[in-house]
Amino acid sequence: AQSVTQLGSHVSVSEGALVLLRCNYSSSVPPYLFWYVQYPNQGLQLLLKYTTGATLVKGINGFEAEFKKSETSFHLTKPSAHMSDAAEYFCAVSEDNDMRFGAGTRLTVKP
Amino acid sequence: DGGITQSPKYLFRKEGQNVTLSCEQNLNHDAMYWYRQDPGQGLRLIYYSQIVNDFQKGDIAEGYSVSREKKESFPLTVTSAQKNPTAFYLCASSMDHPRADGYTFGSGTRLTVV
Question: In chain B, which stretches have pLDDT less than 50?
Answer without folding.
Answer: none
